[in-house]
């Protein structure tokens, strides 16, 4: 069998003036042939060719290299002008173990036009077999990142991830399968190629998961591999999988395809462009949502016009003979995969489009969910078949939000967390909770070490571990504002601990969209458990804790701003163990935006709702023992509220309390821990009382006054409040 070559290339840059930018290549053969050293003169720089390789438009395409230097299952071919000692130092300096908060994920920098330009270079015939490549845009992944193998759709190019290269390349070792235009490898042959790579990777790193991402036809490919390898830890991601081909719009094309005259086929791409994807969604990818509507519309029309010439390139990417072959290949792929789908044991995530006119992806997602043992579905109602090339779907965000990113056999909310990127922050701040931010206009105050109260968050320590302890308002509406303001003003990631029900999967929803619950995970929320709190403090995080929990956020009428805390000071002892700084805080404003009209007692008097609430509470996870008093009465329900003309949210962070110098006395003497606990509770109550009094002095407490001020003076976060 011809050698199937895996190549991974990325560029790195050195500050040393004597060392110019170079490219590093990893070549991996699955043919089992003899290993040979890559000749030192085969790697050149500054645009010169590599032996059997071409670098074009950010992608290094393998041209059949067979020479290799085997090292631990992978082959490293370096620019020969670099000395061994320098190369090792460079690798050690480049590889990082974590990401900065609000990092650049590159989403919006690439467009569908870039895909077509890249495809034109990659489809040039070379007579080679299908092979793996890694886009240079992916860069160097973080230390110990899992591998992600991408299998393309009918185009076979392997560049459909171009919008996601930079983001995925940070947390995955990305490899894309390229199937040449003239290649006629049968489906089982393609399965073997992917399977051999999976097994080789598993043999090298048996404790790491392997991610298989399949787009359309590639979905059949990765599912078939998963069915044949149930013992390997796989995470399978399907983007509108073609397992539903028998019920698709493509079926009538199969008997007609061979009869098409050559001249007529030139019009086929234009016909297919209407059903392949949503051109408006494709054109919106690089449009900044913060731009005025007029500028957004102008840029949208410019992007659509720029896409028109690219449509004709489809005839080169998928010529007539290739389309005929691939339609037959697709039919056999769907049949092969569906006959073995019962054997899939892998964790599966299905991305399903609501406007897919090629395949019945919505129905297929539900079929897969009912057929597979561990399957999660996310439904994107406004997207077309080419979901990975359209606006509104950041693949890494979806992976994080559904809890699918992990480094080992189980997902850990703490150690597997990837900080939010700048594009994610902008979407959440402007789109997801934009109206809430506008309506509540949060005013932040903090306390310096000398006890002085100041506007903003300057009194909060930069260095962790820090434990924020405060009161919940109705339904926890204040949490989003708190976390986002820390990101905006201080670039600090606050990890909130939440009731497990809030972060749970919505099994009762037939077509679950990517929802607010998923975004909570993206923003760092973790289930409230002692082990998670322990882990967060141990890595010096800023942690948000509400001792009153669900009882406080779902309080009854007349209980606004009343604390329902447990009697045990366990969080104090936990904080002292790590020498954490405890920052008590209070927040007010729920009575300015809504009136609670139906609380738990009222709803329990309604027969139908009575049974529903009882069942929901009975089936939910209890995080406190019933014997721990009223705070353990976690009745889960949605209260009836009546909106008001919005007022304002106010936050006051009290004077930081250090436990570093009191560690021994708190851990050894429970009475000292209890006294500190009561002091913290008293500080929270004091913050609440202070805000309730001072908000009466705020000239911009009403949303109308704030709106007028914004129109004349400054952005929302700069609207003044009372003088502290």
UniProtKB/TrEMBL annotation:
<keyword id="KW-0808">Transferase</keyword>
<feature type="domain" description="Serine aminopeptidase S33">
    <location>
        <begin position="198"/>
        <end position="390"/>
    </location>
</feature>
<dbReference type="GO" id="GO:0019432">
    <property type="term" value="P:triglyceride biosynthetic process"/>
</dbReference>
<dbReference type="Pfam" id="PF03982">
    <property type="entry name" value="DAGAT"/>
</dbReference>
<comment type="similarity">
    <text>Belongs to the diacylglycerol acyltransferase family.</text>
</comment>
<dbReference type="GO" id="GO:0016020">
    <property type="term" value="C:membrane"/>
</dbReference>
<feature type="region of interest" description="Disordered">
    <location>
        <begin position="30"/>
        <end position="49"/>
    </location>
</feature>
<dbReference type="InterPro" id="IPR022742">
    <property type="entry name" value="Hydrolase_4"/>
</dbReference>
<protein>
    <recommendedName>
        <fullName>Serine aminopeptidase S33 domain-containing protein</fullName>
    </recommendedName>
</protein>
<dbReference type="Pfam" id="PF12146">
    <property type="entry name" value="Hydrolase_4"/>
</dbReference>
<keyword id="KW-0012">Acyltransferase</keyword>
<dbReference type="InterPro" id="IPR029058">
    <property type="entry name" value="AB_hydrolase_fold"/>
</dbReference>
<dbReference type="GO" id="GO:0004144">
    <property type="term" value="F:diacylglycerol O-acyltransferase activity"/>
</dbReference>
<dbReference type="InterPro" id="IPR007130">
    <property type="entry name" value="DAGAT"/>
</dbReference>
């Amino acid at each position: 069998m011809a050698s199937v070559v895996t190549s991974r290339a990325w560029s790195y840059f050195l500050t040393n003036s004597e060392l110019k930018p170079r490219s590093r290549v990893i070549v991996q053969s699955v043919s089992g042939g003899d290993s040979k050293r890559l000749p030192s003169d085969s790697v050149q720089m500054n645009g010169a060719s590599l032996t059997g390789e071409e670098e074009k438009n950010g992608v290094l395409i393998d041209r059949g290299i067979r020479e290799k230097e085997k090292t631990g299952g992978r082959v490293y071919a370096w620019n020969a002008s670099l000395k061994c000692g320098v190369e090792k130092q460079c690798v050690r300096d480049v590889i990082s173990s974590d990401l900065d908060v609000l990092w650049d994920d590159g989403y919006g920098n690439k467009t569908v036009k870039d895909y077509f330009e890249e495809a034109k270079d990659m489809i040039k015939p070379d007579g080679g077999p299908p092979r793996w490549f890694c886009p240079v845009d992916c860069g160097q992944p973080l230390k110990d990142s899992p591998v992600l193998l991408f299998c393309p759709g009918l185009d076979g190019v392997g560049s459909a991830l171009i919008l996601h290269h930079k983001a995925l390349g940070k947390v995955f070792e990305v490899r894309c399968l390229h199937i040449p235009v003239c290649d006629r490898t049968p489906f089982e042959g393609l399965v073997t190629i992917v399977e051999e790579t999976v097994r080789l990777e598993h043999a090298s790193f048996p404790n790491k998961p392997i991610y298989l991402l399949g787009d359309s036809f590639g979905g059949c490919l990765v599912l078939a591999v998963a069915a044949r390898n149930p013992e390997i830890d796989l995470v399978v991601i399907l983007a509108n999988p073609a397992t539903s081909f028998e019920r698709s719009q493509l079926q009538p094309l199969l008997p007609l395809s061979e009869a098409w005259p050559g001249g007529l086929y030139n019009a086929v791409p234009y016909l297919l462009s209407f059903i392949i994807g949503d051109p408006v969604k494709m054109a919106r990818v690089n449009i900044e949502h913060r731009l005025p509507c007029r500028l957004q519309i102008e840029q949208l029309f410019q992007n659509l016009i720029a896409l028109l010439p690219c449509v004709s390139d489809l005839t080169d990417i998928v010529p007539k003979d290739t389309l005929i072959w691939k339609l037959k290949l697709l039919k056999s792929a769907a049949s092969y995969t569906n006959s073995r789908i019962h054997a899939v044991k892998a964790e599966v995530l299905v991305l399903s489009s609501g406007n897919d006119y090629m395949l019945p992806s919505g129905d297929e997602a539900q079929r897969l969910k009912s057929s597979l043992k561990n399957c999660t579905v996310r439904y994107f109602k406004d997207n077309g078949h080419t979901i990975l090339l359209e606006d509104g779907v950041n693949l890494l965000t979806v992976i994080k939000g559904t809890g699918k990113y992990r480094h080992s056999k189980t997902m850990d909310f703490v150690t597997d967390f990837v900080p939010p990127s700048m594009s994610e922050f902008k979407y959440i701040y402007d789109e997801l909770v934009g109206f809430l931010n506008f309506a509540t206009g949060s005013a932040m105050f903090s306390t310096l070490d000398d006890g002085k109260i100041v506007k903003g968050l300057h009194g909060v320590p930069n260095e962790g571990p820090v434990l924020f302890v405060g009161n919940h308002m109705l339904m926890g509406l204040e949490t989003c504002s708190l976390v986002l303001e820390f990101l905006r003003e201080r670039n600090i990631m606050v990890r909130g601990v939440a009731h497990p029900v809030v972060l749970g999967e919505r099994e009762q929803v037939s077509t679950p969209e990517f929802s607010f619950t998923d975004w909570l995970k993206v923003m760092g929320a973790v289930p409230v458990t002692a082990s998670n709190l322990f882990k967060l403090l141990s890595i010096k995080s800023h942690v948000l804790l509400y001792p009153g929990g669900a009882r406080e956020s779902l309080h009854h009428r007349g209980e606004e701003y009343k604390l329902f805390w447990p009697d045990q000071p366990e969080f104090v002892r936990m904080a002292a163990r790590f020498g954490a700084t405890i920052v008590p805080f209070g927040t007010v404003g729920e009575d300015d935006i809504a009136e609670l009209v139906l609380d738990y007692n009222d709803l329990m008097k309604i027969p139908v709702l009575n049974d529903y609430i009882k069942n929901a509470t009975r089936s939910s996870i209890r995080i406190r023992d019933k014997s721990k008093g009223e705070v353990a009465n976690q009745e889960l329900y949605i209260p009836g509220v009546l909106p008001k003309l919005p007022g304002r949210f106010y936050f006051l962070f009290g004077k930081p309390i250090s436990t570093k110098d009191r560690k021994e006395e708190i851990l050894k003497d429970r009475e000292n821990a209890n006294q500190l606990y009561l002091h913290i509770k008293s500080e929270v109550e004091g913050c609440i009382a202070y805000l309730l009094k001072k908000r009466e002095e705020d000239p911009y407490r009403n949303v109308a006054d704030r709106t007028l001020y914004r129109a004349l003076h400054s952005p929302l976060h700069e609207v003044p409040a009372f003088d502290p």
